[in-house]
Amino acid sequence: MKQSTRLLLLFVPITIAAVFLVSPAHLGAFLNLPGLIVVIGGTLVATFLSRPASEVLAVLRSVPALLREEPTSTADRDYDQLLRFAARYRVASIRNAEREIGCIDNPFVRAGLQQVVDRAPEQELEKSLRWRLASVLRREQGRVQIINTMAIFAPAFGMLGTLFGLVHMLSGLGESGLQEIGGSMAFAMITTVYGIIAANLLFKPLAIKMERRTNMRLMQMKTLMEGVLMIYHKRHPAQIRDVLESMQHSTMENAPATQANGLTLVGA
Fold first, then answer.
1. Considering its fold, how many domains does the chain have in total?
2. Which of 42, 108, 147, 265 is disulfide-compatible with 207, CB 3.0–4.6 A?
3. Is residue 251 part of a domain?
4. CA separation (Å) from 57 to 50, 63, 185, 246?
């Protein structure tokens, strides 16, 4: 999977370069630094104006992670720690179980197991876990919406840059020759191309990938929640392992689930 991601990341610039090199004599027509600034800068400014700055910065910081494959070792470690706690909680004292909680890395699992040790009512435990699921869903949905907003803004600012270029061209129409008019027209139109490329080769794919990862994370959290509830009832660790493995297998099969399925997970 990591190899396929690297190949895709190489394929995009190679494809764009191939398009530009189709007509090497006019390669300079594809270079428009002011137009690129209008598209990227305008998209960022409009996004910061429409959303809280902290959320936009969080999305921008998460982009490098989106370009890498998500490691599966984190989920496996969470399952192993949950099963180790289940084995000790079923036969050991409360004091030993509390010490084991300190070894849990996942805050979602740690908070749930702390309520198990405290013998909180089952309804309160389940409500707390579902609230955490809903909180993660709302936060991730907001991040996906930010990237989708950028995908909407980019073509619009590309068109805006083209209009600026056309206004500049028309203002000197009486003093320019046909060749100069053609060059000015191409210089203006390339800004629209920048906007379309940014929207369809950058922002939209990133939004789809983030949404997919959110659904996978929610399904993994749902699996961990079932494990915590089974520990609450002191089920045998072997039984908990079977349930976790079954749900994990279902998670991998349903990885391309839609956002609506993420909502179903919270309300299930």
1. 1
2. 147
3. yes
4. 13, 10, 36, 37
Angle CA(68)–CA(70)–CA(76) in degrees, nearest 5?
155
- CA 14 distance to own-chain centroid: 24
Half-sphere exposure of 108 (CA within 13 A, CB side): 25
User: Three-state secondary structure along 79-128?
Assistant: HHHHHHHHHHHHHCCHHHHHHHHCCCCCHHHHHHHHHHHCCCCHHHHHHH
Q: Which pLDDT score is estimated for 255? A: 52
C-beta of residue 29 within 8 angstroms of C-beta of residue 194: no
Query: Is residue 56 assigned to a domain?
Result: no
Position 110 in a domain: yes
**155: containing domain:** 32-49+72-267
Q: Contact, 137 vs 263, CB < 8 A?
A: yes
Whether 16 is in a domain gets the answer no
- What is the pLDDT, as a whole number, of residue 260? 39
pLDDT computed for residue 266 by the predictor: 38
Which amino acid, one-letter code, is at 97? A
pLDDT of residue 63: 85
* pLDDT above 60: residue 61: yes
Model pLDDT, residue 245? 82
Residue 55 has, within 13 A of its CA and on its CB side, a CA count of 17
Alpha helices in the chain (DSSP H): 2-20, 33-50, 53-66, 73-91, 94-101, 107-117, 122-171, 178-198, 204-232, 237-253, 259-267
Burial 103-119 (b: 16+ CB within 10 A, else e): ebebebbebbbebbbee
Distance CA 180, CA 176 (A): 6
- Tell me which long-range contacts 179-183 makes (C-beta under 8 A, separation of at least 24): 183/29
